[in-house]
Amino acid sequence: MAFADLRAWIDHLEREGQLRRIKAEVDWNEEIGTLVQIVREETGYALLFENIKDYRDTRGRRLFTNFGTAPQLAMALGLPKDIGIRDQIRHIRQGFKGRLKPIEVATAPVKQNILHGGDVNLLEFPVPKWNPGDGGRYINTQCGVVTRDPDTGWLNVGLYRGMITDRNHIAVLLILTQHWGQHYTKYRDRGQKMPVAVFYGGDPLLSFVAATPATPAGVCEYDVVGALRGEPLPLVKCETSDLLVPADAEIAVEGLIDSDPSTFMMEGPFREYTNYYSGPATPKHTINVTCLTHRDDPVYEGCIGNASAHAGHRSISISAFAWNLLEDAGVPGITDVWVPGLPAGKLVIVQIHKTYRGQAKQVAAALWGTAAAQDAFKHVIVTEEDVNIRDQGQLDWAMTFRINAADNDIVVFPGTPGSPLDPSVPLAERDAMKYGCGVWAKVLFDCTRNWEHTPVPPPVSFVTSKDSLPKRWEEYGI
Fold first, then answer.
1. pLDDT band at residue 124, thresholds of 50, 70 and 90?
2. Is the pLDDT of residue 236 over 50?
3. Residue 282: phi, psi to the nearest 5?
4. Which residues contact 344 (CB under 8 A, 6 or more apart)?
5. Residue 307: is its pLDDT beyond 50?
6. H or E segment to which residue 296 belongs
7. CA 434 – CA 415 distance, rounded (Å)
8. Which CATH class is domain 84-306?
9. Lowest mean pLDDT across 175-189, 250-264, 421-435
């Protein structure tokens, strides 16, 4: 089931009891963010704010947010909302491997209103100040940021944070190791400004794929979205560049990023997925918005923290992605992969059928050798099939009784690329403007059985579910 646009998705969520409309007046200045955080933690409902302070008679009046629980992601994929997590991961694994090219259309809803130059005013849309310590109003949180490789024509769609600095500028965190950072480097070396487009709203799978490092360099995220939704995505050409945005998006902005430091504007702090603020405000690359298009009565879509932080779909998407990486690298015996949500991809737990010594180290080496390891897979835990990797108690047991540091069950790989947002790294080492990324010492925890100590592995006993009992559960009266 493919959703034509954000409005169809909102209607579906409402029919399924997954959405709440907020009709009471709510302040864009921190109140929305507080409500979103509470609802996310307690119920996970998606929210549509329809009465926002200062935004009753502006171009944009409504805000949609909080998409990302596992049942919501299942529905976005056309799956039953109660599907098991492992089955959902398996489905997404196949979708990430697929490609279905988009179609380009001449006219589109996102072109119903076209503004140029001095008519552009980003502050006419209800972008919240999400968190008390944020440096401003972050508009790029659940969106798609589109750039094109000037050499190959490769179109990339990523999710990168951006803060409104005035009516027509968005200061962004541009990390050179990311795909759009690679594009930017080419424009910079040519002495050219980089065209950028940012869209808000559309098929819910757009921001899901944009936030996941599942698409390799040279492959467009629009192709992956098409494969996941089962039909091509309609795109329309921008007004001021050859970039393409979803035809059914709610809002699209077009602009340029200049490499001249004199054009940089202050950005930050921002409460990131780490649950820390991302350091002091510093001058950052800035999108100079030259054109803005939008639907009639557009619905702005945003997310507290940013969409990649949402524990529900981030866990599932990175789990599927990591499993595919290991399979593509030829590592045998992978039986399950799980990435807990809160670390947003920094911790990955891999379950294997162990058939040879050193297999766990091969798992870690395969993950650490990928481009995604610049922002993921900081800590790798490898277990065997007798440990349920989604059961914290069993993981604690494995970490306690399957690891002996003296036997090299803990392996540290220092001096590797890492996230510049990680607060455990010294601030100077996180300077992405200077180094292009941060730095990590990655760690493997080998929780598989040591064959040197136990030639015949001792038996393990875990009662994992009521499925091991006779089919009489109701009779017990428990």
1. very high
2. yes
3. -140, 160
4. 273, 274, 308, 309, 311, 314, 318
5. no
6. none
7. 16
8. mainly beta
9. 421-435
Q: Which amino acid is at 27?
A: D
Alpha-helix residue ranges (DSSP H) falling in 140-196: 179-190
Q: Is the pLDDT of residue 477 over 90?
A: no
Distances from the Cα of 13 to the Cαs of 17, 134, 228, 478, in angstroms?
A: 6, 30, 19, 34
The separation between CA 100 and the C-alpha centre of its own chain, rounded to angstroms, equals 21
Domain spans of the chain?
Answer: 84-306, 329-453
Q: Tell me what pLDDT residue 308 has.
A: 46
pLDDT tens, residue by residue, 10-61: 999 999 999 999 999 999 999 999 999 899 888 889 999 999 999 999 999 9
Q: How far is CA 279 from CA 94, 169, 202, 203, 472, in A?
A: 38, 21, 32, 33, 56
Measured between its terminal Cα atoms, the distance across the chain in Å is 39
Strand 62-65: give its sheet, edge to edge: 19-22, 46-49, 62-65, 299-301
Beta strand 379-384 pairing with 347-352 = parallel
Structure token digits, residue 167: 């009516």
Q: Is the dihedral of CA 382, 383, 387, 392 positive or negative?
A: negative
List C-alpha distances in Å: 58 to 61, 128, 167, 222, 370. Answer: 6, 15, 14, 31, 46
Q: Which of 44, 42, 41 is nearest to 13 (CA)?
A: 44
Strands (E), 230-365: 234-237, 244-246, 251-257, 265-267, 282-284, 286-294, 299-301, 334-338, 347-352
Q: How far apart are CA 240 and CA 143, in angstroms?
A: 19
Residue 184 CA to residue 175 CA, distance in Å, equals: 10
CATH superfamily of 329-453: UbiD C-terminal domain-like (3.40.1670.10)
Give exposure, 407-417, as e/b (b: 16+ Cβ within 10 Å): eebebeeeebb
Distance CA 201, CA 247 (A): 10
Backbone angles phi, psi at 408, to 5 degrees: 60, 30
What would the two tokens of residue 201 be? Answer: 């709203």
Residue found by looking up tokens 């997925």 in the block: 273
Give yes or no for a contact between 286 and 169, defined as CB atoms under 8 angstroms apart.
Answer: yes
Question: Cα–Cα distance between 27 and 14 in angstroms, integer?
Answer: 23
Q: Which two tokens stand for residue 210?
A: 């944009």
Average pLDDT of the segment spanning 399-410: 92
pLDDT of residue 280: 87
User: What is the chain's alpha carbon radius of gyration, rounded to the nearest angstrom?
Assistant: 23
pLDDT, greater one: 308 or 384: 384
